[in-house]
From TrEMBL:
PROSITE patterns attached to this UniProt entry: SAM_MT_TRMB
Database matches in HAMAP family: tRNA_methyltr_TrmB (MF_01057)
Protein source organism: Micromonospora profundi
Keyword S-adenosyl-L-methionine among record annotations: yes
Residues reported in the UniProt entry to bind substrate: K118, D150, T185, K186, F187, E188
Similarity comment text for this entry: Belongs to the class I-like SAM-binding methyltransferase superfamily. TrmB family.
Binding-site residues, S-adenosyl-L-methionine: E40, E65, D92, D114
Function: Catalyzes the formation of N(7)-methylguanine at position 46 (m7G46) in tRNA.
CDD domains referenced in this protein's UniProt entry, alphabetically: AdoMet_MTases
Protein name: tRNA (guanine-N(7)-)-methyltransferase
Keyword tRNA processing tagged: yes
One of the record's GO cellular component terms: tRNA methyltransferase complex
Keywords from the named record: Methyltransferase, S-adenosyl-L-methionine, Transferase, tRNA processing
């Protein structure tokens, strides 16, 4: 990590961070208010999370990540942007979700998860039936599950899995147009430059 990131982690973790455990999470206590909550699974370096939170102050953003430099970078962005509507969880996303009450989330974002391209590794993918059922159960009625990937085979597999969930409705009847609220990241620009088009899938809970 850079010196700036190390400093941010040391100073800001106690204020904005939590370690994932088997315990339940009180979102109102975590954020200090009651507001719609967006869960960001795999926030990476945090640029997208910080940008969306800054543009959407009426909602709270809970990012979950395992990569320490990414966590530290997001903490730095939170401080620089004076973003009191962001909290960062360190650990396994599914363990975090299990600790949330049913219907607690306004939206779940799964942007550019690891595609695990080898067939023998597909069982590690975040978007698979049991995981989708868990994520959907934490959405409020009408809440949104938004996935994005630059891996064509995974995009089709995501669509098939999401279509199969009886409580999710495809908001666009197929791949969605790129939503304006999802920032373009450096990762996404590299994917497009390499000729990998990005697919968005947006589903709502019935």
């Amino acid at each position: 990590m850079s010196g700036r990131q190390t400093d941010a982690l040391d100073r800001l973790w106690s204020r904005y961070g939590l370690d994932v455990s088997d315990a339940s999470v009180d979102l109102a206590q975590l954020f200090g208010r009651r507001a719609p909550v967006v869960l960001e699974i795999g926030s990476g370096m945090g640029d997208s999370t910080a940008a969306m939170a800054a543009a959407d102050p009426g909602r709270d953003y809970l990012a979950v990540e395992v990569h320490t430099p990414g966590i530290a970078n997001l903490l730095d962005l939170v401080e620089r942007g004076d973003l009191d509507n962001v909290r960062i969880a360190r650990g396994d996303a599914l363990d975090l979700v299990r600790g949330l009450p049913e219907g607690a989330l306004a939206a779940v974002h799964v942007y550019f998860p690891d595609p695990w391209p080898k067939a023998r590794h597909h069982k590690r993918r975040i978007i698979q039936p049991a995981h989708v059922a868990l994520l959907r159960s934490r959405l409020a009625p009408g809440g949104t599950l938004h996935c994005a990937t630059d891996w064509a085979e995974y995009a089709e597999a995501m669509r098939e899995t999401l279509d199969a969930d009886p409580e999710l409705v495809d908001a666009y009847g197929g791949f969605a147009p790129r939503p304006a609220h999802r920032p373009v990241t450096k990762f996404e620009r590299r994917a497009i430059t390499a000729g990998r088009p990005v697919a968005d899938l947006i589903y709502r809970r019935r």
